[in-house]
Amino acid sequence: MTPRGFAEAEFLTRLSRAQAAMQTADIAALFLTTEPEIRYFTGFLTRFWESPTRPWFLVVPAQGDPVAVIPSIGGHLMGQSWITDIRTWRAPDYDDDGVTLLADTLAELTPKGARIGLPSGRETHLRMPLQDFQRLQSLLPDRDFTNDANIMRGLREVKSEAEIEKLRAACTIASAAFSSVPDIARPGIPLAKVFRDFQRLCLAEGADWVPYLAGAAAPGGYGDVISPADDRPLAKGDVLMLDTGLVHDGYFSDFDRNFSIGRASPQVRDAHVKLIEATQAAFAIARPGATAADLFHAMDRIVTGGAGGSDAGRLGHGLGMQLTEPPSLIPADDTPLVPGMVLTLEPGIEVTPGRIMVHEENIVIRETGAEWLSLPAPPEIVEITS
Amino acid sequence: MTPRGFAEAEFLTRLSRAQAAMQTADIAALFLTTEPEIRYFTGFLTRFWESPTRPWFLVVPAQGDPVAVIPSIGGHLMGQSWITDIRTWRAPDYDDDGVTLLADTLAELTPKGARIGLPSGRETHLRMPLQDFQRLQSLLPDRDFTNDANIMRGLREVKSEAEIEKLRAACTIASAAFSSVPDIARPGIPLAKVFRDFQRLCLAEGADWVPYLAGAAAPGGYGDVISPADDRPLAKGDVLMLDTGLVHDGYFSDFDRNFSIGRASPQVRDAHVKLIEATQAAFAIARPGATAADLFHAMDRIVTGGAGGSDAGRLGHGLGMQLTEPPSLIPADDTPLVPGMVLTLEPGIEVTPGRIMVHEENIVIRETGAEWLSLPAPPEIVEITS
Description:
The structure is a homodimer. Chain A is an alpha+beta fold.
């Protein structure tokens, strides 16, 4: 395993890239409120974000180091990061939950008339009460809150080697867990128990935690890929699918595996072969010069004959500090692939009307082509016949 | 274990309470975007919210049933809920990610001039891109987007018996997992392994998943309560604290336990006794007629001598579909306790300068007093001396 966290140089590189982009976009400061955005610049890693109570803020000025404006409960942990300017208040404060402290910080770090960029485009949200944001704007009438010119998306879309190693570690853990599924799944075992035991496998293999597990088991394919488990026992003829996003040192894997409980039907076998064929077709062209849309079409040709998609809406996406990140593998996404992008390839196929199967792998784009991060599945669906 | 999900009557009761409150507040529709808000009215339970890509919307009109406006990938699962009016689009759509569909729905369900309530006060956020919200507003110039008059907070703060049973089940699972900690923690074992093994215990005891685990191990107390694990091996003299939020059928437990690795020092023993004393003092007065602030003061008197708090900011909070919910046990929160409120009691104490210990239990308010949901800890800290 690689060491935890990052060297300070990693953060300095991220900061200098951000500041160069801010100069170009005429943005005096980035104003960040979500977990991955704040962690990207600080390394601040905690599961405490699960609590929605307290807002957390990071200001990245166009010159100088980031300033954390955070609840005092996080002061000790943030104090262990490379950030030195940490301003805290005792949250929750019903009269003023950090808004004045934040406004004062932004006023100090940006000139009047400045544009303050906050991520506002697709796949973003503002993690603070809307009323507090409106109050912040009223406290700073001479500042223009605007989109971040997609600076955060651009930065995070391309991973450093240190990030890729963490993603590889997460994927290696997930690959090992999937290889043990035949030990925990057989006819008669409730799906909910398979879900619990699979998460235990992920942890035993070294996952720090397992933020995501969805899946299904149903005869000849399933209805969707986002359901939690029910208590229905596995039965012969079921296709079992497990799709996990586990975390190692703050970075996700995100891929799934399909299993046939008992012998697979010819339709299920063929569907799985096509899913692997589609994945391999996208992998083969995944290199600098291709676009996200190209990967979509390479897969869609095989799984739908080129119909242009399905209800899933896309056939893969970026992966990193979050389970899903830009870009999306859809016809409308012309993002050029560049070295360092980490992607999922996630084709789905309709086996019979209303019954689907989905397969997923994780890859990284390199100068000369793609490299697997997950251990790629063979064309033959694994049959659990014990 | 109680059956999964809720009877339809539960949702109808929630809806009629919401609609009564909307009449009073002159709100023509609630506009909801976050996981717990949408699940509260629909029962839509999926871990897919871990992906930030797609927005999800629910409109609760002042009369009639809720309308789901959601990505097509969720249509199958939402179709299994009691909701019948489900409008989908194929997300992600870079030109229009559900905004027009949502605007049309709001226009259909509310008259011109109507007030549309969205949760905007403390502990809320808007889970959609800010630019899309601004576009929504521009598409509906004749509607007034306003705070939800705290209707969602008020509804969710008081749990039904069916909800309390799910919370009790989650707490029972966590209590069982904590009782096995002496099997997984001893000198020489890295804290990160204890974290992994503790999550495995939670799953083995029946947790569906473990969204939250924080903790620490350090000599004579720890520096904070929100840190992830590091690889430092446990050593004699450490206080080990594990604080978990695990989920059973969509409802959380949230409490911690402290363990002494080897014999506890007198300071650590005394600190633990005081924490239990503080918890019991709050428990003793937790009944209708008391307020959230009263519980704070009952604990604060014992752990600080009445100093009025610490960096943690509060000494407990609500608990339910989220790890933390309103109210907060702070001096400023005068929320009256009513039967059905589920709370955590979470006093913290400074053992020596910079070294703290925190204890936490979960309770439900009943007509005549409080009832434990967690199995309350005894005053003596558990010593792991094997």
